[in-house]
Every structure is written in C-alpha cells, then in structure tokens.
Amino acid sequence: MQPRDLSAHTPYVPGRGTEEVARELGVDPEDLTKLSSNENPHGPSQQAVAAIQDAAPTVSVYPKTAHTDLTEKLADKWDLTSEQVWVSPGADGAIDYLTRAMLEPDDRVLEPSPGFTYYSMSARYHHGDAVQYEVSKDDDFEQTAELVLDAYDGERMVYLTTPHNPSGATFAIDEIRTLAESVEDHTLLVVDEAYGEFSDEPSAIDLLSEYDNIAVLRTFSKAYGLAGLRIGYACVPESWADAYARVNTPFAASELACRAALAALDDEDHVEKTVESVEWSRDYLRAELDVPTWESAGNFVLAQVGDATAVSEASQREGVIVRDCTSFGLPECIRISCGTKAQTKRAVEVLNRIVSEVPPA
Predict the structure, then answer these.
(1) What is the pLDDT of residues 293-313, one digit of tens each?
(2) What CATH number corresponds to the domain at position 217?
(3) Beta strand pairing status for 85-88 and 232-235?
C-alpha cells in the first residue's frame, strides 16, 4: 500500500536547529549562535513561563476554558467579536482552517514567490493547487496591488505577506485596500502578519470592519517568543466567522499554549523590549555587513553574499547558523535573524570574514 500521489508537494525546509548542528560539528550547543529561524533571542516572557508552570498539573483536562479565554482576550485586543478570532496551532494551523473553509477541489490559491511554502502545501493537502506572483529581487521585493493583479486570474485565495519573508518588505495598507476592492467577489485575501509586531504599517485587521473578503494571520511565535508551543490565530470578517466551528480541529491549541499566550499578552514590556532589540539589530546588520542588504520590517535581514550555500556552511562551521535562502529561490542570499547585541555583533564579524574569503558563485 502507498499514500496518494504527493509528488506535487514541496517539503517545508526549516532553519537548522542548534542541537542538530552541535551534534554534527561535535561542539557544545551553547557555543553556537542560531540566527536562522527568526526566533525571539530573549525567549518567552517570564510571565508566560510562570503560566506554563502553573498550568502543567492541569494538562489532563481539554483546553476549553483556556481556549475561550484567549479568544475573548484577542477579540478585545483587536476590537472584534469573539467569533472573528480563530485560535490555532501556530499560524500554519490557521492557514489550514481557512483552506478548509474556502477551497473546493481544484480551486487555486495565488501566493508570493519567494514565500512561505506552507501556503501551497495546505492548498494541495485539501486537493487544491497554487500559482505564484513574483516578488522580485530586481525590484527590491516591492509589493503592490498592481503586482498581484497582473498575476491574478480569479483564484479563490490570494496570500499577501507583510512583512514579507525572507525580504522584510511590507505591503502598504492602502495597497491591500485596493486589492480588496479589485478582486472578484469569491476571492479571499489572506494577509499574513506573522512579523507584524516589528512593522510600522497598521494591521490589516483594521480593514475587517469594511471588507468581508480579508482574513489576517497572526502568531505568538515571533515577538512573543512562544514558537515551541505552536499558537497563533486568524482574524476574519464577522459575516462568515461561524465557519470556524465547522473546520476547527477539536482542541487543537493546547492548554499550555493558550495559558502561555494569555500571559504573554499581558507582558507588554517583554514585547516592547523585543521590538527595540530587533530595531537595533536590523540597523546594525545593515550598517556593518560588507554585503548588500535590504531594508526590513521583520526580525531578520536579507543579505546578498554570492554563494549562499558556501557562506552559510562556512558560517555554521564558525558557530553562527544563518538561513541559506536557496530554498526560497535566492541562491545568492542568506537571511540573518535579529539576535541580541552580542549575537548580532558576532554574526557580523564572522560573516564579514567569510564573504571576504569565499569566491562568488
């Protein structure tokens, strides 16, 4: 027996983990600086840690109350009804919920390239398909309504990423508004704001009161430092919010994740510290790296180094793990996550030495 034909599915390629690399190099994991996965270098809020510890004895109980409490807290944060908040196991869980709610077999989604491979993965899991619009390096990864509409052909879902990964480019709110007014009535715009806390652009959640064809993705993995708990959510229009009960996996967001997210929302100082740290690191990377970089509104910086694989492998041997962007279709670029001041300075020192020695691709 074999599973169904999965040849059209492209596996997601995550950044390499510290322990994995440490075993490979035969070094102590604490000697490595991991700047490959856009994680929070300050870790989670201590309030979230305490909430996890307090909730640990209750994990024998399904997370009904915690899920409801988190939904209501997020609704209050964004001035929505609780039905408009779809709590999920990470933002990718919310992608699955929206795909289940929207796609019929053979429906297509339109996604950015380069971009998050899970958009198309989810579509194909649900017997749909995906086509792409190009966010071009030659145009400094500029994202506009015109760019999307030039590729748009009535797709059921259109993904917009702001800030865009791996470039850090934003999608201006007025451009999203233009798209909402330009696409066909059956098309849903899905605005992925996984890195939204690091951007000065207003959230597209503000548009939900005006448009019924926009959904917005958010996560606790980045600014809140809860990546290991897999907790995120979608915000959707009120007119079709009740679809959640029909597509949600029962109790998909865990008790510990919901309790930690509740506590993290209360610790505004931790998020502020994280955002300030990211702003410093972004500026330092762009000012001090001896290679071209792009302005970023995320917690990472994209750099053009010539041979991304050679540079990332050499950097890893030196104890600094960065993201080779070949899997994004950018074999000449690496993505460096924003670390602490010490981590960021170490990365710049190592990378500048390597790029001066590694021949161009």
Answers:
(1) 999 999 999 999 999 999 999
(2) 3.40.640.10
(3) antiparallel
List pLDDT tens digits, range 215-258. 999 999 999 999 999 999 999 999 998 899 899 988 889 999 99
Q: Which of 245, 266, 287 is the last residue of a domain?
A: 266
Instruction: Say if residue 30's pLDDT is above 90.
Output: no
Q: What is the pTM of this model?
A: 0.95
Which of these three, 266, 301, 326, is where a domain ends? 266
Structurally, the chain folds into a number of domains equal to: 2
- State the residue range of the domain holding 278: 18-43+269-353
Cβ contacts of residue 326 below 8 Å, gap of 6+?
308, 309
